[in-house]
Amino acid sequence: MLVFVEALAGLHGQVVQHDRSVAIFRHSSSRYNETAVTWQASVARVTSPDAPSTSVVVLSRWRSLAPAAVFLCTHQLGEAMVPIVVGALIDDAIARHDPFRLVGWLVVLAADFVLLSLSWRFGARFAAAARLGIEHDLRMLVIERVLDPRGMVEPRRAGELVTIAASDARRVAGTVRTLLSGAAGLVVLVASVVLIARTSWLLAVLIVVAAVLVLLVVSSLGRLVERRSHAEQQASADAAATASDLVSGLRVLAGLRAGAAAAARYRRVSSSSMRQAIRAADAEGLVAGIAAFATGLYLVAVAGVGSALALGGGATIGDVIAVFGLSQFIIGPLSALAACWPAMSRGRASAARIRQVLTTAPVLVPVDERSERRAPRLERGRRTAAPALAVHGLFVAGIEDLALEVELGSMHGVAVSSPDDADALVAVLGGERGFQAGTLFIDGTSASDLDSDRRRAQLLVWPHGALPPGRDLSEMTTGTPDANDDALVPAVQSALSALGALDVIERRAGGLASLVTEGGTSLSGGERQRVALARLLMERPPILVLHEPASALDAVTESAIATGLRAHREGLTTVVVTTSATLLAMCDRVTLVDDGRATITGCHDELAADNARYREVVHR
């Protein structure tokens, strides 16, 4: 799974789109039960109940954190003991000219160095294990939430999710490592104050006051660092998301000759990210500079007081050496403590972004299967069967009070005047997006009474641009890599033939066994659409929703696809969200959605002849 996460970061969000396709095409090719169970999609109004906080994730690594803290504290205490041992060696051995005592103190000094060296080695090892483990755990939580089949009410762009899963998780884990050093610094600071107090209470008080002042000044600037760090990470996520969008649409941009405009847009976003990074670095530099200045003043004050003690005869040479050594050494722990506040500010900002993803409400929710509300009819007539798909009073994005019914076993077209509204409608039907109000019924059963697994088995939604997963054409069209299966080959060829897509296989030497590059980049846009449609025809879901399934094809191939869809989906329910007149002409009924509302329903020929707005939307 760690490899998968690294691949996610490396592909700049392509894995997220790939998983979207996996979820869409993951159904087996087993036959569906015609007596149909019904499924549902509904917005959850509560946050994800099983989302742990980042603090819980951090504490779950206590087996590494606890020994890391102990060993790092021991290392710092060993460092603090060096000037103490040297001072004692001078007073007790050198001043007395006693070689035996000198040897004894040298042994003690050597033992101290062995202790602090081994403590650092094991402390750093446990700290690294804790940091990497926390980073991995947070990253996995984000990825699991992104790949949750229940979806997210507030979808995010792939590049932003990559930044959160990679950069923000790394920052939170890095904060834990900094806090371990700060904890060790606090322990040694207290120990040093106690040791120095044995020589001079004035020096001990001076150290305490200096430490408190440094920490107060640094902590007062922590909010500034946190705000700028959050803005930096958000700008970085926007830049990554923009880069992901550009890479995924590179061919389209090249075809439209819009590369210059796209590059200019990315430069603007990237420049904004750079400015936010500089602002965050300025804030951190300000905090570090103030901390360094304060510790420098502290060192000057300690040197002055220590010199006065030595000149006044209030301390021995060994005491002065020990005090000066400790005073200089304490700068390190003080700096470590000062670094904790900026680190915590950055960590809190990143943890908040991770938490937002983990607590995003799901679109699909598990329900009690015994509770089933039946769909009311929009029109009462001779038909008694419940509609295969019905939407009542839907409000989402630009769609307002949408009412739509699709008859069981029919091919129904939906012409939406706004591409954004079309995307929103398909996302709602596919369970990838929640809605403000309204009710969705599938085969007469309320969406709020169905769980995600049952829903996805009955209703298959193919978003525009989605591609079935697979390493070769056989796996992409059938779900199995066995291209020589005698039972599958005729069915695949029949599906491809109906779509005018046999040339996709024939022009490749390997046929169905031909390998396909990651993301289907070795296929043209039209080939990707036809391969995806072939897989859909092989699956034969009871209800199929397509979104612009032939947008990359010429008129002749589009006509073949319309005819093939009609023939292969006979007796099954098909919804085509498109503005293509060729596809809409094959539908039994067509609904025009204009300005977010269903304005008229009828057959394509009648609407094209009698409704000017329909002609404008479809024939533009």
TrEMBL record:
Subcellular compartments: Cell membrane
UniProt keywords, alphabetically: ATP-binding, Membrane, Nucleotide-binding, Transmembrane, Transmembrane helix
Membrane topology: Multi-pass membrane protein
Record-linked Gene3D superfamilies: ABC transporter type 1, transmembrane domain, P-loop containing nucleotide triphosphate hydrolases
Record carries keyword 4Fe-4S: no
InterPro entries, sorted: ABC1_TM_dom, ABC1_TM_sf, ABC_transporter-like_ATP-bd, ABC_transporter-like_CS, P-loop_NTPase, Type_1_exporter
Record field: transmembrane: 102-122, 179-197, 203-225, 285-309, 321-344
Record protein name field: ABC transporter ATP-binding protein
Organism: Humibacter ginsenosidimutans
